[in-house]
From TrEMBL:
Domain Xaa-Pro dipeptidyl-peptidase C-terminal: from-to ranges: 315-549
GO molecular function: dipeptidyl-peptidase activity
Pfam families linked to this entry: Peptidase_S15, PepX_C
Keywords carried by this UniProt record: Hydrolase
Protein name in UniProt: Acyl esterase
SMART domains reported in the protein's UniProt record: PepX_C
Coiled coil (UniProt feature): none
């Protein structure tokens, strides 16, 4: 199908006196700064060389450029690739963001944004390849964001770099966010020399997880991303495509990896409180590799990515599969979870599990009572409703737990809703924790209170995909719009992102429902283009069985499970 391209932001040579590195979005952080091509080899640190601006030809003749850092005078070393459209040098990316939540001095000035640090990895006898993909910086062609063209280029580069005289022939990929997202798509192309990947915090479905989460468009945030892509050609204009094609089609499908083709070892992570969360778990669950590991944590992706505990652990993973060192990596639990409590406190740290969702999950329903704003484990008989202003109002539903409760996995919110004064509704849901006095207990992320596990729904997009949906995870098809008629009451099933959190006896769970995303003070420009007018009405009780389904987790072992005095 026809794809809209915009002119990419013109690269700025920092040597020019009149350069302007300011502007909106990422450009204010330094993106767009791109020195003129200067192929050379120089020593960036004692014993470490950088081969700068190497041209690599793709299968169609287009040339892209890469900086390769590697140990001087060493051969038979594996390479880790950082692939993204953020610029292959620190000065071409968002350098100020690089250290947010990370202790000063942790990351060297050679590190590309959200990528492996050459001055860590090269001293561990790895090479680092920072790539400007097609259309980025001075690379030829037009930028393709996470689609087939980008994936095929990744395949071509992997096969090229594996043949270099210093390379062992084993190639891995590493990095956060966009650098993780590209790994899913490239690995699905199955390049022969791609040995393993480590996508830490990677969205897997641009439409469902970024551009139209729940069907609600997020044009502003994605303009912030697309508008900052720097190159000499065009950039895949996902924003214009969203405005032209607001329903799922071939363009958006092309940006979803075929996870069934990923069979190499994978070590991925997920942050319970970041928008890459859903995609990270979708990728982990869907890939066909028999050697896959997931670690889910509370902290934001950047401080976790350069953590002094988990960075050496990542080295163990790469040592095992890129250097064939038998270091007992296989004994690492397949799933590890930080079970959150409140603020920076955890109920459990890296708790080992065998799968996700957990096999011992017990799903329970909390039924909404619109008349009292309460939740209960039993169905509500009396039909009632609650109305709130679609732009300013909030509806809360609470339940106080009479015993300790752990919720780990996928929740879903089943509601009966009505629009009063409009033909559509945008609904934003947060699942929160309250202390024994009824005060909100958030989780802290980069020092800011997080609103809680979330879900979104544009009601006209309520139709589910029967092939993708499960009982615990409703997934919208986004193939049609179904507007509401005056007085029409319809059921919706809202997917809530996975979570892991512990409620102590006497604490409460709250469902917060509004027509807007409720969060203050966060640095990322997370905005949604809502279409709310009039009031939203939530119905409950009787035939309107509105409920929240929660995945409760019993202890692994309970009294009676262990038979004392026997070896069986």
């Amino acid at each position: 199908m026809d794809v809209i391209y915009r002119k990419a932001k013109t690269p700025i040579d920092p040597s020019l006196e009149n350069r302007d590195a300011g502007g909106a979005g990422m450009n204010a952080m330094g993106m767009g700064v791109c020195p003129a091509l200067n192929p050379r080899t120089y020593e960036v640190a004692p014993g470490i060389i950088c081969e700068q601006d190497i041209a690599v030809e793709m299968r169609d003749g287009v040339k892209i450029y890469v900086d390769i850092f590697r140990p001087k005078d060493k051969t038979n070393i594996p390479v880790l690739i950082s692939w993204s459209f953020y610029g292959k040098r620190p000065g071409e990316g968002m350098s100020e963001w690089q250290i947010m939540g990370v202790a000063p001095g942790t990351v060297s000035k050679t590190a590309k944004f959200e990528s492996p640090d050459p001055l860590y990895w090269c001293y561990q006898d790895y090479a680092i390849a920072n790539v400007d993909p097609r259309g980025v910086g001075h690379s030829e062609g037009d930028v393709n964001c996470f689609g087939t063209q980008d994936a095929r280029d990744g395949y071509d580069f992997i096969e090229w770099v594996a043949q270099q005289p210093w390379c062992s022939g084993k190639v891995g990929m590493s990095g956060n966010s966009a650098v993780a997202m590209s790994q899913w798509r490239i690995a699905a192309e199955q390049p022969p020399h791609l040995t393993c990947i480590a996508p830490w915090e990677g969205t897997s479905d641009i439409y469902r997880e970024s551009m139209f989460e729940g069907g609600v468009p997020a044009i502003a945030f994605n303009e912030f991303i697309v508008g900052s892509i720097t190159g000499e050609g065009g950039a895949d204009d996902m924003v214009a495509m969203a405005q032209q094609s607001p329903l799922m089609n071939a363009y958006w499908e092309d940006k979803i990896p075929d996870f069934s083709k990923i069979k190499i070892p994978v070590y991925c992570t997920a942050c319970w409180n970041h928008f890459h969360l859903r995609g990270a778990f979708q990728g982990f669950r869907k890939i066909k590799s028999r050697k896959k590991w997931m670690r889910a944590h509370r902290e934001f992706e950047w401080p976790d990515g350069y953590d002094r505990v988990h960075l050496p652990e990542l080295k163990m993973f790469f040592d095992r599969y890129l250097k064939d060192i038998h270091n007992c990596w296989e004994s690492t639990p397949r799933v590890r979870l930080e079970v959150q409590d409140a603020h920076e406190f955890l109920y459990a740290l890296d708790r080992p599990e065998t799968s996700f969702p957990l096999k011992r999950t017990q799903y329970k329903k909390l039924y909404l009572d619109a008349g009292s704003g309460a939740l209960s484990f039993g169905p509500v008989e009396q039909e009632t409703s609650i109305s709130y202003d679609g732009n300013e109002g909030v509806a809360n539903f609470d339940i106080k737990f009479e015993e300790d409760v752990e919720i780990t996995g996928y929740m879903k919110l089943h509601l009966w809703v009505e629009a009063d004064g409009h033909d559509d509704m945008d609904m934003f849901v947060n699942i929160q924790k309250l202390d024994t006095k009824g005060e909100w207990l958030p989780v802290d992320v980069l020092g800011e209170p997080h609103p809680g596990a979330w879900g979104k729904m544009r009601v006209s997009h309520r139709a589910l995909d029967p092939d993708l949906s499960t009982d615990f995870q409703p997934i919208q098809s986004h193939l049609k719009e179904e507007k509401l008629s005056p007085g029409e009451i319809v059921p919706v099933d809202i997917e809530i992102v996975p979570t892991s959190r512990f409620w102590h006896k006497g604490q409460s769970l709250r469902i917060q429902i509004a027509g807007r995303y409720i969060r203050e003070g966060w640095f990322e420009p997370l905005f949604w283009d809502t279409d709310n007018h009039g009031n939203h009405i939530i119905h409950s009780g009787g035939k309107y069985d509105s409920y929240l389904q929660i995945p409760t987790i019993p202890p692994k072992y309970q009294d009676g499970d262990i038979k004392y005095g026997t070896t069986n």
